[in-house]
């Protein structure tokens, strides 16, 4: 017997209930395993995933969507430096918009719980092909295989299901009908009212190059669940993960009798970007953007009359005032700075260390000793090819390497700045051609904002000699207000200082991780528990995920009429 | 013993709980009586209210707020045509913004439940002075005393408490803290997380001239409850109600030890409007606007980087396809058209009647007979001074009378248009000088959009000879999509037609009232039950009230740190 959408909704209801409980308690939960270890997965799954990925190479990516005018693709692996050779259907934007508009009424009329369940099903199916996805993400972004498997797989799908939880909460908050009774003078007025949830229109999801799925899934699911068709615009150098995702969504929709054109892919090239065609179209009512502060800021300053959700980037700081275990803190900072070669929106860049040293149980630890400990921890990662490969992966774009090299040159000419560690490559054990770069580390005096006062997208750490911890907090929050910040970090032993810092970072609208060391990456953000991006500083206006991320994606339209006599009786 | 904010929060908790139950069930509920009948109110309350209002006249309105540079006031009563003689403190916008910014941190640090309770207390105190408020609203807007008492009093306060209910729901949805535990490899990571609700910034509330309190209270309370200071910018011809409201809010805040500058009044004149000074200030993060489509549209097209909530106006239609009781329907249409001389955002303007007549139990009723019935029902109201005064009140601005007179002249020159009823004044029993105007009624052929294809702010009804009911629905929804619509009305006996109409109006994002006759005004919108404005057409982008009206007014900032050992034990 074929599973109907209603049966699917019943099947996934417990999953959504669990997700709602998770976001309300903010406790750890996930329906997925985020380790690629073979013992968590079906026999043969890793091999099948690799084979599926390999079968994608050097051919057209089959996607039967409307308005195809040609085939394009310009992805190059940062590991092999060779083109993937995959071409994707390029559709006329007008055709994609028309197809989405045509699909909208049927989707809008679908019960919300079924739409939510369809999205949950998409997530589960994407989890089922996660080994393939991991290879795809790895080869277009440069993420390590492990990180691509977890961060761009289950962790990203969790963000999507988290958005579903909020969509369910927001939509369930609207009763579909009511009986309203009130006396007007001598007359007893009894009305039957109906409240319909109506989608806003077509939703555009613009994905970033380095971590495409993580922001895309919540945006796609939030819009789809609330009834809005979605057009996915991947970055032209990182199409494959989103093509796989769009294909899975389309197949899921079709399998349950829905119009697959509810999810389409808008591929473009760097030379001929196509996003504006969608952004400016009146039928596009929702835009989710992840990417550069330049384009994101332009959208934030120009888009009106549409919902706009952005995540761009920030200037993430570590204030290192004290440590119970300095070696553990140095390791945590080094790991966070090395992870994916600092190409994450949560990667720290500016490390404030009091010029007079940090507090430790063994007494003050000098600035240079702290710096040496951090560099030693970086070297420990960088000098072991297997750990370097697993943590740093590859650098997606040569431009990032150029940025870091230019910073090194500028640091060499700046009085007071000291290059403590050069940004040398490491030899990837599997991919000798991989574009790799281990972190540049520069010690700078406070005030050298010409070097560290902006975000540099690439592996670089500035160790800033702050007057003291208070000055460090002050400057980190000042720069965060000005340039944005997504993740901030504090290491301190003084409880009063920690309290003051928590207030100061909150006052600047900056999330703060305090004294995180050990097995968990300090810059790991857990779906269902960690709110990602506050919306209070220039790093973005949207949060993954809160009610505000979904509540505006649908509207309510009502009608009311005199209740029939039987309604009177029923309600009595 | 002085009541503390915490005690206040405990005292008002049941009120908020009831309000939340009301918005969730959408059943009738109100903590207030909306009739001015003496039996519902304390002895002497009506007289005290009148005396309080009279004592306001011809003097300065005492409001001890920052930056006062002068005293201005240009209100004229539409009933007496004489200036009220009240002058209000004009404050330097920069001083109001600075004062609000200075008040923000203390308010942001106040527990949300206390902020909500403070707003509830403001509402209750405003209810306690509602007789005074009714006179104030009446004399600046032209509303009848009864309507000013109910519509601008309890009904408006209910809208405010409704917004508080949503603010409570949205803020309570964020747990203040969590304990998060997860295995990473062999390590059991246990984190303590804190989630703070952080206001966006200063909120500006721009009020309309004709019904200032109704939209202002929900906007003010939604922003205040979520931690944002509020600057109220009343329309210069209708300041007094908002001055009374702001004074009450300030007194409430001060009584409980809070900074009264959390609520201030920004008075201006028509000659020198001041709204832009606030709109363009970076410290202003939220704008609630009620007023003209021209200014509202300008804001919708230009404001970026801030939350903007608008309600402007629409082209409200009645589709009259059939009636069980044609006289009752004619009365309902006439009453809705006469209420406050059609100066309400819910007033109908375009009445579609099939040229071939409407369906009734006695067979088809001809277009001209339907028209005659509506006009007879209008005359019944207009010709009895007491009912005219109670229903129509006065016309606030001479411009509205000019609009209607110009329409009459144009209709006289348009082939096929017939002026069926001239817009004559009625003699107000208490105010011989009152600016009154009973509705102009013009019969027009379908397609005469040069006359009826835009909103005319004044008492005018177009009876449009539609080809049939389907054509009427089609045109009403087409014009609604183009010009916006806030309330739409259908009278029909054919259930299949009603279903089709419900779908068509929902498809156009238009709320629909079906077959409403009798004691309740067809254009009465009930707080806690009727969603007001869909946000899906040009009549406004915000809804009173839903989660989206409040969910974005605050943001979430978190911190996380290793849990202390005792936290492990507690949670086990």
From TrEMBL, chains A, B:
Pfam family of the protein (one): Aldedh
Keyword NAD on this protein?
yes
GO MF, one annotated term: L-glutamate gamma-semialdehyde dehydrogenase activity
Q: Does the keyword NAD apply?
A: yes
Give the UniProt record's GO annotations in the biological process aspect. Answer: L-proline catabolic process to L-glutamate
Q: Which domain of life is it from?
A: Bacteria
Protein name in UniProt: Aldehyde dehydrogenase family protein
Q: Which organism is it from?
A: Sphingomonas changnyeongensis
